[in-house]
Amino acid sequence: MTDIFIEGGRTLIGSEFAETSLSVSGADIAQIDAPRGRARLAIDACNLLVLPGIVDLHGDAFERQMMPRAGVDFPIDVALADTDRQVISNGITTVFHATTWSWEPGLRSGDNARRLLEAIERQRPHFAADTRFHLRHETYNLDAEAEICQWLAEGRVDLFAFNDHMDGTIGDMVPPRKRNRMVERTGLSSEDFDKLVAHVVSRTAGVPASITRLAVAARAAEVRMLSHDDATPAMRRAFRDMGVTLAEFPINEETAREAAAAGDAIVYGAPNVVRGGSHTGWTRASDMIAKGLCSVLASDYYYPAPLLAAFRLATDDVLPLNEAWKLISSAPAQATGLTDRGTLAAGHRADILLVDDSAPLRPRLVAVIAAGKLMHLTDATRLQTAVTLPRETVVAA
Asked: Measured between alpha carbons, how far is 265 from 256 in angstroms, rounded to an integer?
């Protein structure tokens, strides 16, 4: 691992930008406003922003690398390696792969969730980004409960979410295009899919007790929990009473206000900000941010979105950039219990981005440092000549 010195950039320190230097030693930031010293590698950050790495607590775009077309599978190790390159090249230095374990066969089946978890654990040392496992449990998937409790107890799950898409599934069974997409994803015949849905719905009465037991298991394992698509303030309160303190994509303002009043983390999708609205027609994230009803932005289904969203919020005068950046860095780090990242400070993990903001709506990543390693560089002229150590130092070493 090479010590790195970054100089001349407009650096986000706390909540303010300052022209200063950073020194990196090993995997951590060694000093702010540091002298050059004997760093082996120096980077000229003149006219660039120096920002903390992005922490993405919910991203599932990796599914497109696994199944780029319905029924077309690629090996998980290949898909994850490609995903890692995408993640890093978009400034995401900590990523939680949001893996849905549903009652469906196919892409979101138990077998696929197991293979994905094992692949992440196996490949984690080789990833450029700190890659973690966010398990999205479909609450009607009662048969998965025992195994999920075991995973939680063994420390294999980094985030745990409660999802309930059953109403949407039933609603999508009528429109032909949506129905065909769902059926193709499972690999079942249309008739067998209908039978499976009917069986799952018949077990509705067992869902609330299962949610309660899983929440107890997650609390015992000290795993942070999210509830997905909360529809009412009462639903948010019920999940909070079980220790679920992250509200992910609340679908209306009154539910978001309930979450905010209690100090819950409120997650919306960064693509919503970039596109100017939700693809489902629900809440506009930028409106929620302006009202103080969103504390975290996640990539959701599009890895370039967090970087673009922060700069769009600043350009549209929704938030100044230093505040917008918190939504994709320090706030998700805090929400997931990662106290060693999300801000640039001595002793913190050296996850650092160098960004050219000359085109405000199209920020360009010049360099990405993850855990003290230069992982992405688009402008080699920014590299400075390494300091030459005195001969006696080399001999002594």
From this structure: 10
DSSP 307-357: HHHHHHHHHTTSS-HHHHHHTTTHHHHHHTT-TTSSS--TTSB--EEEEE-
CA distance 326 to 321: 9
Residues 381 and 48: beta-carbon distance below 8 Å: no
* Calpha distance 306→7 (Å, rounded): 25
User: What is the distance between the alpha carbons of residues 356 and 46, in angstroms, rounded to a whole number?
Assistant: 10
Which pTM does this prediction carry?
0.91
Cα separations (Å) of 176 from 113, 181, 199, 200?
28, 9, 21, 21
pLDDT tens readout for residues 293-310: 999 999 999 999 999 999
Maximum Cα interatomic distance, the chain, rounded to a whole number of Å: 78
Q: Three-state SS for 130?
A: strand
Residue 204 has pLDDT above 80, yes or no: yes
Confidence of residue 292 (pLDDT cuts 50, 70, 90): very high
Q: Which of 224, 204, 181, 231 is nearest to 58 (CA)?
A: 224
Q: 303: helix, coil or strand?
A: coil
Q: Evaluate if residue 117 carries a pLDDT over 60.
A: yes
Mean pLDDT of the chain: 92
Residues in the chain: 397
Dihedral of CA 341/342/346/351: which sign? positive
DSSP state of 386: P
Closest CA to 375 of 168, 170, 127: 127
Q: Using only C-alpha atoms, what is the Rg of the chain?
A: 22
* pLDDT interval class at 177 (50, 70, 90): confident
Q: Among 94, 127, 10, 97, which Cα is nearest to 328's?
A: 94
